[in-house]
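Supplementary Methods S3. Complex input for the flavin-adenine dinucleotide-bound model.
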Amino acid sequence: MSVASDQLIDRLTSELGTDSVITDRATLEAHAVDGLVPRAVCSPGDAAQVAAAIRVCGEAGAAIAPRGGGTAVALGNVPHRVDVVLRTDRLAALVEHDDANLTATMEAGMTLAHLQTHLAQRGQLLPLDPPRPDRATIGGIVAASTNGARRMFYGGVRDLVIGMKMVLPGGEQVKAGGKVVKNVAGYDMCKLFVGSLGTLGIITEVTCKMTPLPERALTIIARDGGSTAEGSGAFRLIDALFASTLQPSAIAVLSPRAGELVRAGGPGVATAVAVEGFTEAVDRHVRDITGMAAAAGLSAEVLEGPAHERLWAAVADFPRSREGEALVRLTVPPGAVATAVDALSRVDDSPVYVAHAGAGTIWIGVEAARAATVFAALTSVAGAQHGHAVLASAPPEVKRGLDVWGSPPPALSIMREIKQRFDPQQLLNPGRFVAFL
Ligand SMILES: Cc1cc2nc3c(=O)[nH]c(=O)nc-3n(C[C@H](O)[C@H](O)[C@H](O)COP(=O)(O)OP(=O)(O)OC[C@H]3O[C@@H](n4cnc5c(N)ncnc54)[C@H](O)[C@@H]3O)c2cc1C
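Predicted complex, serialized as structure tokens:
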């Protein structure tokens, strides 16, 4: 930084006002990123104030860590520097809800739970399942672009975002995409910012596609007490499902330990199949899927209402249940999930995992002490299936020196140029992204 902390704090305070800049020790420590304690925490009240704060930090050479609900601040490499944590919690308004066209525009600091409450009153929802929706913000969800169980049915974050407004490191306020699907020509800048982890700009507003609330939603849990997925009929059932015309909204295979953690009830590997839609279609799915489960040698029970919601909230929260431990996310083609899950038992004799069979995402819990070794082993498991492994969370002392994003992407040189073009001073979440970008 080119100025002293108190000068930076004075400048931020003169731009944002006293109440919006916090410097007490306890708050600063509570906003540490991988152990790096910021010099100030600020909460701009609107996009213009975000721009002013970024300009002040730019002039001071101060590194910024954007923060929404803080439920995923563990995601990413240990940052090179953190001088200012810029919170989006005061940008929490619903800008517009065009329910006729199933789109809504909200400020980036709005929590998903708050949005869902509003949408439910109009019979709609945003089908995303991050951990802690009561804290996860729309901006954070878009910046992290980590998808949940229902991606296989509704699409992922990248498919649901159609427009956004951002503030770039120079303080420019820019707009990408629009209020209706694909109404702009040129490069799709929205897609560039989805999953950019706050390294190219700060998202201040997002427009997403909504979907009608399903008439009915429930889960079929199938199990046979088998302790390994390979041993149980789980993937026989899933193969039958994939070979059918049925369209479940989510399929999760839970290892015995993961089943306990998410209180899926009962011993052994469990396969949870969620079904959503019109009552007739749901009834048909229940009939056919319980038949398929029986054919695969599995017993099946149906969870509906609060039991159904509780299960998927716990499944979404599984990654966060690993606080203090480590978590690896494998992404493989859906058809390779069975092979990848089978390979887990060669890396860990009692693996703790949740495998989203329809989306090809496997979350694996690992003891922190073994994280580096297991991550390396799982990187080759994913590689063998044309997939990818990310160390999604781990204590900073484990992450230091590791690139948590795994092997560098082929287009790394272009990514470096994009980062350099957008953020020449390397101020936004420096070092957090792939290859320490
Ligand atoms: C281990 C793990 C598992 C996860 N599993 C899932 C899952 O299953 N499904 C799912 O949907 N999500 C998942 N997520 C992602 C995550 O929980 C949320 O999607 C989302 O990132 C949380 O929002 P937040 O507001 O708490 O973000 P934060 O934790 O505050 O921020 C997340 C990242 O985004 C950046 N950021 C935040 N706000 C902005 C902004 N306005 N502009 C630019 N950058 C910003 C931050 O700097 C940070 O790098 C997971 C995350 C982790 C770490």
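DSSP finds 16 helices and 19 strands in the chain. The CA atoms of residues 127 and 154 lie 6 Å apart.
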